[in-house]
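Hello,

Our lab assistant flagged a job as stuck in the queue for most of the afternoon. It eventually completed. Since we weren't sure the result was trustworthy after the delay, we are filing this so someone can double-check. Below is the sequence as submitted and the structure that was eventually returned. Let us know if re-running is recommended.
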Amino acid sequence: MRNAHACLMAAFVVLAACKPATKEFSLHGQVVQSDPSQKTIVIKHGDIPGFMPGMTMPYKVKQSFEADGLKPGDVIDANIFVLRDGSDFWLQGVRITGRPSTSSASESNAVHMLKPGEHVPDLELTNQDGKTFRLTDFQGKAVLMTFIYTRCPLPEFCPRLSSQFARIQDDLAKSPEDYARTRLVSVSFDPQYDTPAVLRKYALAYLRDDASGFSHWDFASAPRDKLRDLANAFGLYYSEEDNQISHSMNIVLIAPDGKVVKYWSGDWTTAELETALRQAAHSG
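-- returned structure --
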């Protein structure tokens, strides 16, 4: 019995040691967008020492009620819990500490996202080869679109998005039928710096220097005076300060008929995105 008890205690110690521990940080910021159904809150915040610099980004919450009742412009405090291996993080204890004095102040911060079933805007974009196109040119194909900028310094933001799209690109290329029925689009919200030449160089790093991939994946920019309209349509928040761009992360799935199917602004996996794209491509 004594030996059995010792073995059980040893097993408990091993399991406890293997259980991921968390680090905790304090967040103070302003709500840009809240989506209880997706369990995400997009927050503009200052520097969080030991975690990340000031920026605008989406945060997950474990329970949807943490995001309930939040409006653009609300000032909040919350606790950030981060797994020690850095693989995940989330908010808890969200508390409203201030609200805009007028409804107009709140509305000015609102991001108006197209709802599923609504048609995408017919705006002109310019790709990495300097050629213009419109999203409506891809009718008949399912389109997965995201927003990036080439100077993004944070690996969990634009580089993560581009790496995920690169994996999807490779997987789809293994199925000629799916490849022909789909399209990938990465739109820069830094058009002044991200010229076609810059976008092409950036893109080739993710295409392993195979320019034939541009037949399926466009890296594009919108005219500066139209970019805000495009961003608002797809729920993207971005702002530029001191030559750095703070932004939320948004991925949009567009059906072959040119209507929005779904968007992701918080937690997702590459497999989830790829499965949804394939399903949309064959839904017609």
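-- support follow-up --
The delay was a queue issue, not a problem with the job. The result is valid. The domain at 124-281 is CATH 3.40.30.10 (Glutaredoxin). The chain has two domains: 20-109, 124-281.
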